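does this look right to u?? iron/sulfur cluster version
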Amino acid sequence: MIIKLEPEILQAVEKPARYTGHELNAVHKDWESTPCHFALALPDVYEVGMSNLGLKILYEVLNAREDTACERVYAPWIDMEEIMRQRQIPLFSLESFHAIKEFDFLGFSLQYEMIYSNVLNMLDLAGIPIWSRDRGENDPFIVGGGPCVYNTEPIADFFDFFIVGEGEELICETVDVFRSWQEAGKPEGRQGLLKRLAVLDGIYVPSFYNVTYNQQGLFADIEPACPEAKPVIYKRLIKDMDSVRFVEKPVLPYIDIVHDRIMLELFRGCTRGCRFCQAGTSYRPVRERSKDRLRELARKLIDSTGYNEMSLTSLSSADYSCLGELVDDLFSDFKDEKVSFSLPSLRIDSFSIDLAHKMQQVRKSGLTFAPEAGTQRLRDVINKGVTEENLMAATEAAFRQGWKQVKLYFMMGLPTETDEDIVGIAKLAEKVARKYKEVTGRWGVTVTISVSCFVPKPHTPFQWYGQLPEAEFHRRQRLLKDSITERAVKFNYHDARVSVLEGAIARGDRKIAQVIYQAWKDGAKFDGWNDLFKNDVWHEAFAKCGIDLHLYNERAREPEEKLPWEHTTPGVSKEFLLREYDKAIKEQLTEDCRRGKCSACGVCPSLKAKVVDWRRENV
Amino acid sequence: MYKYRAEITKGEEIRYISHLDYAGVMERAIRRAKLPAAYSEGFNPHIKIAFASALSLGVISDAEYMDFEMTKPLCQPEVFDRLSKALPPGVKLLRLKEVPEPKPCKGKKHKALMAEVQEAEYELYVPLTGYWQEAVQAVEAYNKAPEAMVHRVTPKTNKMIETKQYMLKPVKLSMAGDLLKLYMDIAITQSGSVKPGEILKLLQAEYNLPVDEPKVLIKRISMKGQGRALIDLV
Ligand code: SF4
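got this back:
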């Protein structure tokens, strides 16, 4: 079925171009003669979905195959959803406008937990059964990927399978297996394909496992229930970043999107070893692209899009070994084309400031730093290798270069945090504000502190830690607010209500699926959007399902407990994580293995991977 | 500086993008075409590009005009080909002319494209829900009326506008397949204008034109100054 939206519908919704496709570089293939149809979804609105780099890459990887038509779909905004439900218009793709139900695969990129209600909503809009067990031979296979695969259990029952880790190779292997199953006449139906997929490295088929619980109803164990299922699924990773396909012709939106610029990915992984950070453990080890490859990609991307802005993205871009030279080369390559470059995050040092100065030339929009904690003691606990002197030197350099706005990111509720650490945030921010006066002789700086509520995440050294109760977050937020006396310091805090729910889902087990389902039934969607977040609906859903939220977010786990997420792993060992937790309590630091010594996290040996850092290579 | 004027379209594919987005689309197309575009000064340089008149969301057009400047001379066929190839779905380059430098003796600068626009013609295609004769009567009544007011409410304005002063010719009607086709020729003046969609709503609400108004497709077919297409003014 091909969906055609009437003008009266498009005239009635906000930003109709979200639904009309036809963008430059979108790939249109003949439906009938292409044997594999793969829809890629991001369960959020078009402008967010179109900004996701992972999906851009997979779109090109899949469309490079002659046998596959890969098309895009995003969550319709609530105004459009209402009309679609009224008129019974099913969810459709933005290339051929086929109903999503007619695809062979529907892949969701799962970026954070609070987006799960949208996954359910999209399945429902597509007319696909929400629970994998209810799906029939004519339904698409529902695939999950992205950062949330390091604890898939809360959504395991909604998905047919997951792709764990970096998907460029594995998604092609998946299609290969599908094609041979298809050509063989689909032996054993859905189960047949899932069995063939389950043996691939990095594929997790949740329905092939049995989960057991202890007397208290807590997760006890998960075990394979069929010979194809592996006890542990290690993530996949790309070993050679230079030869793997990258985005060269991204779909160019007609309307403004969240990241409306080129994203040039310098490297994957970050091994600075911040103990709260899930990205830091999930993308190990560091693997850089070569400078020449990056220049070549930058040229292709500028030529295929006509953008004049390029972001040099990575988890910590300033750590790229050849950054200085790369920036110089890019400047000279594009000097006539007025291309501007930016770094999404800055390291707290003067190298970063000089670079930012060079890149921004005149425009001095705000600088952002992430000290994460207010005192040296707590920064040592989280292994944030930044000192107060580093921050003062960096901000001093920035003020000398003319910046007047600084944004500082912190977290609240980290293990061992005391009131002194909270007050320390205010003191540090005020010190930065006074530094401005000292450097320039004037007032007129704005120091914005943005404080999020810490959510312990799977596969991090803090995965055992009990999250703070909501009331305690509120008390600490008030304490911080009262500790700020300087007018130049502005305080933004995050909604603790969302963080405690995120805390429960992030470390949830399969029982949480029922809660997500209930919350969605009762109207939860777009929970990541402040104005649409329905806190009560979620708490009622936990109550209706008889599940105690606090057992998931506030309960500290025992080191010997088996955790519900250990079977889909990025490869860091439990011993390493425990060792790091222990060092955290002792306020001891761990070195970055990128150029320093290996901290034996387990990733390299278990995945037969190695660090690729050009400065290290050349030594 | 070498200035060009382009006659371009806004097709069905991009019917629902705003004027600002359309400008962004053209700016990126010029960049992809690798034309030696002239940029504005400042830390956030933009290609020097100007449009004749904004098109409402949902309206398509066979007659959009855009002036842009280049720092090097290139022959017209070269510019035409390069730009044509770089255009996204929904935009076609119909005509392209170099805008000559104004005579120095007159001491004047180029007149801004926007200031040259005096009229625009439109075709509207809309399902007829009643009899043809009713439609004829409705349009005739409107054409004969000495005055016809519309109420314009936007987030910024709330006012009554007299429409007949802008109607350069009587509204014409005919059938195009199953659809009723209306023709309008509307003046664009310093002090304002009226939109074809507003006239249609008025015809339906006050003159009983029997149409399914939300389903209308509006197409701009010309934009003129001194009675000539804007591209023929150069
Ligand atoms: S195994 Fe060693 S070198 Fe490899 S990522 Fe872990 S700590 Fe770094």
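Chain B is about 25% helix and 30% strand. idk if thats expected tbh
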